[in-house]
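Hi support team,

I've been running sequence recovery on a batch of backbones for a student project. Most finish fine, but this one hangs at about 90% for roughly twenty minutes before it completes. I'm not sure whether the input is malformed or the queue is just slow. I've pasted the structure tokens below so you can try to reproduce it. Let me know if you need the job ID as well.

Thanks,
M.K.
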């Protein structure tokens, strides 16, 4: 294969869909809010080869279509937990907001102010047949990331890319921070790739009455993307490598990582995907110029 792998206006996912077969996306914490950006996986969701299984306890009814299943479950350890519903719905969590921390930052305490508490049952990720053979995992559970992942180790065995919100300060009591999440995923065969969509707030003066300056220089949270580790890449099938390349190209513009995955396929199977990928990228860039 020496011709271009895909063309302008075409996703890489569409170009390789006949080679990778069905693609399963898992979205934990799937509620969409007004003005919110499309999910990170939108470019691969658009492919006819993709299906999405989405979870969020704020969803009232189970909705099922041919390509998207929505389930109103809270993911966790399989035990009952208190759901803290906050003034800003996107800050609601199974964990209690950490007033000592959030009161130091402009508007954050109000956004995380608990307005309702209720007991909710959680379901373990590994107990759900709907997530078997998952390829992409997105998590947004407001501090409860390891509560979910700790009971999803088997599910992670098939996952190629993890996209999860992480925090750098304990916005919720007892929550793991980025370093702990990264260390856990490292044990499961992943490496940190990059941050995106940082959340920031101005720090208040000691009096907590005002914040000085114009910039929100303090990063409090972000989305973090994790990819297969070097050792795991060596053991992946052609299908997994092709799909990882498509995800990283279409969703994140990570041309270097996509190319590296395709090179591995070429070395194993004597194909020409890497050269075809370079041709496609260069051709599209030449048109833009």
């Amino acid at each position: 294969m020496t011709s271009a792998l895909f063309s302008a206006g075409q996703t890489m996912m569409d170009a390789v869909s006949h080679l990778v077969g069905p693609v399963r996306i898992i979205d934990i914490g799937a509620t969409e809010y007004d003005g919110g950006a499309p999910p990170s996986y939108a470019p691969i969701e658009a492919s006819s080869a993709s299906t999405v299984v989405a979870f969020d306890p704020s969803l009232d009814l189970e909705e099922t279509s041919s390509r998207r299943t929505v389930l109103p479950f809270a993911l966790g350890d399989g035990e009952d937990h208190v759901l803290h519903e906050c003034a800003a719905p996107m800050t609601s969590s199974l964990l209690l907001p950490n007033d000592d921390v959030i009161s130091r930052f402009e508007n954050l305490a109000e956004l995380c102010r608990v307005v309702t508490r209720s007991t909710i049952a959680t379901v373990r990720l590994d107990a759900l047949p709907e997530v078997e053979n998952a390829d992409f995992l997105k998590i947004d559970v407001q501090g409860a990331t390891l509560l979910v992942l700790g009971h999803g180790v088997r599910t992670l065995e098939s996952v190629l890319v993890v996209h999860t919100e992480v925090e750098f300060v304990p916005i919720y009591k007892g929550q793991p921070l980025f370093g702990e999440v990264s260390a856990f995923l490292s044990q499961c065969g992943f490496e940190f790739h990059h941050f995106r969509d940082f959340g920031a707030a101005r720090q208040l003066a000691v009096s907590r009455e005002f914040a000085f300056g114009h910039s929100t220089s303090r990063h409090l949270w972000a989305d973090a993307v994790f990819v297969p580790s070097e050792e795991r890449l060596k053991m992946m099938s052609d299908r997994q490598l092709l799909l990882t390349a498509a995800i990283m190209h279409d969703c994140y513009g990570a041309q270097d990582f996509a190319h590296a995955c395709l090179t591995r396929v070429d070395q194993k199977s004597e194909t020409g995907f890497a050269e075809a990928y370079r041709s496609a990228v260069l051709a599209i860039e030449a048109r833009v110029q």
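--
Follow-up from support: It reproduced on our side and the slowdown came from queue contention, not your input. The chain has a mean pLDDT of 92. No action needed from you.
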